[in-house]
Amino acid sequence: MSNVLLQVVNLSKSYKDKNYWLNRRCINALEPLSFNIEAHKTLAIVGETGSGKSTLAKLLVGAELPSTGHIRLNGQTLEPGNFKQRCQHIRMIFQDSGTTLNPSLTIEQLLDEPLQLNTDLDELERYQLIRETLQKVGLLAEHMNFYPHMFSGGQKQRISLARAIILQPQVIILDEALASLDPSLRSQMINLLLDLQQQMGLAFILISHNLGIVRHFSDEMMVLYKGKVLELGKTTDILQNPQHKHTKKLIMSQRFQLLNR
Ligand SMILES: Nc1ncnc2c1ncn2[C@@H]1O[C@H](COP(=O)(O)OP(=O)(O)OP(=O)(O)O)[C@@H](O)[C@H]1O
What is the model's pLDDT at position 257? Predict the structure, then answer.
């Protein structure tokens, strides 16, 4: 019996075309797609601009409602409008999430927010969980009293990661989360994410333009093109033996990144 954590079944999204007379035409941002992810595994989503990666991420976190399909977590269907249920189990980290931390709050207040909103823990329990979570992401308990501007870019990304894991989610979506870090910080962050994945059994969905990162980090990959799935399979198989001409083009355009890792 496989250890399937997240099941995506026939999920699709179309938008009304605002530029079209009477709005009768639709843009199919994502054609119906299905996939599974197991705990401890990483699925990378790649594709050129406009291929539907962000749309898929928005559907997974519940920021958009699907046109068709549904999502199951541990066999249970996630209700489209139930944000509390969704945001406890599926969290997202963006490219510049470090820079969007509220500058007027201390790190303790920033990490306390999701706990107050989503749990019944008392003040002492929340305090202890904040301490533990900061240590998990390689920061110190004393950092609780600091403000975001007192940290470097890489440390701010760790604070965003702490905010993402503090509710003990099962799935984390990394939307170009590693793109703005320099190569050495990026490797540290990847190692930290892999450690947390081991410890917590997390499943990651990695949205990235960088096939070097995809190769290093992911077990499986999905190639999207104009809202359609071109390929879905083991990352090593697809990178070594791409079947579709658009996948081949993507790999050729990044052979430099792939050679340098
Ligand atoms: N709110 C919206 N209304 C109308 N069309 C939209 C909306 N959001 C996305 N689209 C369209 O859906 C398609 C997929 O967009 P999406 O942002 O998911 O692509 P992407 O792969 O994430 O691109 P990028 O790499 O640039 O972020 C595009 O054609 C886009 O124009």
Answer: 66
Q: Is 104 in the pocket of ligand 1 (CB under 6 A)?
A: no
- Residue 208 near ligand 1, beta carbon < 6 Å: no
Q: What pLDDT score does 180 carry?
A: 78
CA dihedral 67, 31, 1, 62 (to 10 degrees): -40
Q: Which of 11, 12, 27, when mutated, tests ligand 1's pocket best, judged by the most ligand atoms within 8 Å of its CB?
A: 27
Q: What are the strands of the beta sheet with 228-234, ordered from one edge?
A: 90-94, 171-175, 203-207, 42-46, 220-225, 228-234
Q: Indicate whether residue 52 lines ligand 1 (CB < 6 A).
A: yes
Distance 84 CA to ligand 1 centre (A): 26
Report the separation in Å between the CA atom of 110 and the middle of ligand 1, taken as the mean of its atom positions. Answer: 30
At 177, the pLDDT band (50, 70, 90 cuts) reads: confident
- What domains, with CATH codes, occur in the chain? 4-102+170-259 (3.40.50.300)
Closest ligand 1 atom to the C-alpha of 15? 4
Cβ-Cβ contacts under 8 Å for 19 (sequence gap 6 or more): none
Q: List, in order, residues 6 or more apart from 183 with CB less than 8 Å away.
A: none
53 lines ligand 1 (CB under 6 A): yes
pLDDT tens figures, 129-150: 999 999 999 999 999 999 999 9
